[in-house]
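pasting for the record
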Amino acid sequence: MYRYIKGTVEEIGLDYVVIESFGIGYKINTSSNTIYNIKKGQSVKLYTRLIVKEDDMSICGFLTEEELSMFELLNSVSKIGPKLALGILSFAPVKQLGGFILSGDINSISKAPGVGKKTAERIVLELKDKIDKNNVEYEISLFSNETIQIDEAVEALIALGYSPKEAKNAADIVRKDSKNTEDLIKKALTYLMK
């Protein structure tokens, strides 16, 4: 029904935003990745999907068409509803999540909130062949050990008070020059303190 909604960000919650467009405030459920990239008062365009249930109607929206495509793919997996799909998208950026699926990295996917090993296996099984057909660019993590190091470093930086976006960005920038997780954390901290 709605392809996108364009308007001003009036409110930001933990898992939703309110966008005012032509005098109407739309409450739009979204991922933390989208929330981290918008500010109150900013004019934005969110790509949306209307969710209709027997007892509820809601809108899910995303800053990029790639994130919307991944949401739709996740939502197509049996036993994964909109809420769980949003939780998975909040756990990892679209490119990284696509990499986990294409490489069959069940351990990484099962770390998402509400996702156990069986659900992670179902995601890989049902989406592995569908990923490339959606014109989305993915970074395939060839070294799962490197992914684990980055995840651990990001968690440590968040524990030190940095936002998930700042922590992930810093870890990605310094990862090539780092020998291990401890080295990665030190270099990321140095980068963040500049």
